[in-house]
Amino acid sequence: MPGNMLSKGEVFVIDTDAASREQLSTALQQSAYDVICFADGASLLSEAKARMPACVLMELPPDRSGLDMLRRLREENCMAPVLVTSANGSIAMAVDAIKSGAADFIEKPFRTHDIVGRIDAAIDEFAQPGTSRQRWLPGCEPLTEREGDVLEHLAAGLTNKEIARRMHLSARTVEGYRAGILKKAGARNVTDLLRRIFGQGASTQV
Questions:
Q1: 84 with 106: CB under 8 angstroms?
Q2: Which residues touch 120 (CB under 8 Å, ≥6 apart)?
Q3: Among 14, 148, 152, 173, which is disulfide-ready with 105 (CB 3.0 to 4.6 Å)?
Q4: Whether this model's pTM surpasses 0.85
Q5: Strand, helix or coil for residue 146
Q6: Bridge-partner residues for 133, per DSSP?
Q7: In angstroms, rounded to a whole number, what is the distance separating the alpha carbons of residues 85 and 60?
Q8: pLDDT tens, position by position, 40-85
Q9: ∠ at Cα 49 (60, 32), nearest 5°?
Q10: Nearest partner of 48 among 75, 21, 83, judged by Cα
Q11: Cα–Cα distance for residue pair 11/83, rounded to 1 Å
């Protein structure tokens, strides 16, 4: 981190590729973050017990063991936003990652400056008051803050990519939130979901 800049906090980076860790570390340090890199999840968990990072950037291995790591981080009361990266991303994996506590799902390869922007956005949102707000759909399980935001954008007719740009998320992450909304609402697709909402004359409530 440049010596004349105040630290924006620590970011934990877990990635099995040394070159990728170095690249991410350099970009984050240039953006005024302190960075601690890890080659495996066990060492990250140990460090997370002793200190609270501002954000965690975690590579998800092909065997999906990283999902267990996500859940364990939450069990250890590490409440910092966790961004997940993967070279083998799929919609199903993105949905599972979000259900396990990820704030964003980013497919590799990626541009490091995009990652920095995503981390900035995740930390800013985490710091906002009222992030525990929930929205309700008639007769359904309450939506999370982000699910509610995604639903509002869907109702406005935005595509996944447009929503991703508005919310500073990846399209896969938006797809994951959308799938969660549909499941909670018991809807087959977005058209079915919106038909139910507007057909009942109801809207999401904060």
A1: yes
A2: 31
A3: 173
A4: no
A5: helix
A6: none
A7: 6
A8: 777 788 787 777 889 999 998 777 677 888 888 877 777 788 999 9
A9: 70
A10: 75
A11: 11
